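Our example copied in:
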Amino acid sequence: MSKDILQGVADYYSSRIRTHGATPEGVDWNGSASQQQRFAQLLKLVPVEEQRAGFSLIDVGCGYGALLTWMREQGLPVDYHGYDLSEQMIAAARQQHPADDAVRFEVAESASRQADYAVASGIFNVCQNTARDTWERYIADVLRAMDACSRKGFAFNCLTSYSDPPFMRDYLYYGDPCFYFDLCKRTYSREVALLHDYGLYEFTLLVRKSS
């Protein structure tokens, strides 16, 4: 992956959390309601029986650990590993969630372990001034890493190219959901679900690996 892109992402989100603290705005979301709505879409990846019995999950670009907070509020028994490029984000996550046997946070560019599932929320949205083709190569690199660290599947979301033009911003990346569905279907699994019906200007892709 491009070191320039990784440094740019780390710097951007570090500045956000310094300004807004451990809040949805600190990871560039508008508020907690839409943030939790995204989490609910991503966790559709995990079968209900595993949500009851327990599963392991890698949170790619975990920020301050909001997904872990949400999962605990839902009563989900999860063995959780979150990593992020931003040292400030991980410091905030550790403050929010003291380490225990089922929780680990680290500053890293990739996961240091495997888990049942891997998810990424919002990490592909802010491209800043990176050229579109360069940013898409970065996304492809991250998806390969998510595939490699997950045994049963992975899920991610992205702003959609079907957004209303007057509200689109030039520093954000709007992905073509059909392109990413095709990419995941052809590259990673025959079992791919595209969710584009939950009222936000984005889509979520669930990639379930065949057992």
